[in-house]
Amino acid sequence: MQFNKLSTPLFVVASFLFGLKTYFVYRFMFDMSIENLMQEFILFVNPLASAYLIFAISVWLKPKNQMKYLRWTAVIGTIIIYLNLVFYRNFTDFITIPVLFQGNNAADLGSSLLTLIHWGDVFLLLDVIIVWILSKKTDEMAVRFTKHAKIAATAVTFLLLAGNVVLAEIERPMLFVRAFDREYLVKNIGIYNYHIYDATMHTKTKAQRVFADDSQIGDIESYMKNETGSKEPSEMFGAAEGKNVIFVSIESFQNYLIDSEINGTETTPFLNDLKEGQETIWFENFYHQTAQGKTSDSEFIVENSLYPLDRGSVYFTHAQNDYHALPEMLNKSDYETSVFHANNKSFWNRDVMYDNIAYDEFYGDESYEETPENSFGWGLEDKAFFEQSIPYLKEQDQPFYSKFITLTHHFPFELPEDKANIDKYDSGSTTLNDSFQTARYTDEAVAEFFEELKEAGLYEDSIIVLMGDHYGISEFHNKAMGEFIGKEIDGYEHIQQQRVPFMIHIPGYEDGGVRDEVVGQIDVKPTLLNLLGIEDKNDLTFGTDMFADERKGFIAMRDGSFVSDDHIFTDGICYDRESGEEVDPEEEACAPVREKVDKELQYSDDIIYGDLFRFYDFD
Ligand code: GP9
Ligand code: MN
């Protein structure tokens, strides 16, 4: 029939529908920042180009197989994009191969998972259904191309692909080399090509350890020793000598919670008071520096003063490396070291990593008694967690270093109603709204912990360090967060939102107060060692003692953003740190620090990927 001959082939229909759907998901379901018309254009073109790329291959198949290929490709493509979407809703990030191997973590997500799946998502099946139905009409929808036509159809693929890559390079020079930010990649080359890129990177980094040798460590050593601020003992050297260290990593706590109020009630009355007291030093400009590895990244940075990786969690990907971590060093100074965390031990591969970096003890979920009353959300609630930890803590030989990792204030911030002592916030984001109740609960738990430590006779001889591990409210909730803090969240404000509480509480200390230095997790290790009066002979760290007079002058984020004393740089924009006004990124202002940040992140990656510390003699 004449009509059949004229109908559009299915591979074209499928490419168009699938491309359009992908565009729709990029544009309206992921929260990607679009700064100019060019980006908008690329974002529209790349899904169509990518879709054509995968569907057009079908022209080489026999008609029946063409149809099979097209419908299954639509299904698999949809699954890939949907998994990314669900992942994105939780992490504001795209899946990488290392993250896939953290599968047992996904199982633990449990209750979080349901909140990440939305009803409207079923519309993502629309094109799949259409393609599926049309694919049953092989005679009308399949193509029977001559060899020349097949080659021509394939050539279009390469033209589209090349065009896309050229546009992307114009828009983001060195996109593939730097690749600190997955969002740029997805925005510019699409999610499918991004996955291919990611797989290539994964193979490459695996090979890096094999080819690494000791020649690389020299440059890195001299950088760490000479360009990361003063390594001289600071005013606080030995201020907590011989004391126990109780390090509390507070789940997902950000600074927006501190001093906040909901309907006249303080969210964190205990922490608010604590930071005002003379026994506490509170660093109000302390930034988390974590990436995909979340809590485990925060632990890794604190223990090693190295950066996490930009893909996956170091705790998973490089748990067997040689490190020179805080617990190992403390063990040498006769500390007993332990971790308390009421979750299964394999989460974030902790059991393996802790063993490697020589924690003496790890009290995981089997050390705690969970009942229906005392567990909700992610598991054992924080009050019971601290209370049940005390007997174990008493067993430690003094001095001890014990890390506690809380859990209640974890996304999706679930709390039984009768346990809530503060209202929910009222905005378009349930996540942000609920977060105040769990934050309040954790604040109460920490308050109780202080009392329990006093009763157990452990308080006086200890210092207590409190730190938020990473953000709890992702960019996805920028609108609601903007309402809450009373200003729109641009790049500058986004970085400022990465501040998390960091307090050092020293019983009997009289010189506490607020400090405004720009500091971060990378500085914790040198700071603690300094406080305890332990000299680090090797100084292979990227951080500086927070009390040092001469500091490195910037805090780098894993994606290459940074906060320096004078500026904040992110997404290619340089802001004045005080005013938040944009300044020229190529000027003195941001360019030199940017270079240093890139170098430092690269060095850190070299150490981890090449397992370079195995070539270094630390004693
Ligand atoms: C899990 C807890 C939470 O044990 O540390 O991990 P997170 O999701 O925050 O990385
Ligand atoms: Mn966490």
TrEMBL record:
It is found in: Cell membrane. It is an enzyme of class 2 (transferase). This is LTA synthase family protein. The keyword Isomerase does not apply. GO terms for molecular function: transferase activity. It comes from Halobacillus campisalis. Keywords: Cell membrane, Membrane, Transferase, Transmembrane, Transmembrane helix. It comes from the Bacteria. Belongs to the LTA synthase family. The keyword Cell membrane applies. It holds the Pfam family Sulfatase. PANTHER family: LIPOTEICHOIC ACID SYNTHASE, LIPOTEICHOIC ACID SYNTHASE-LIKE YQGS.
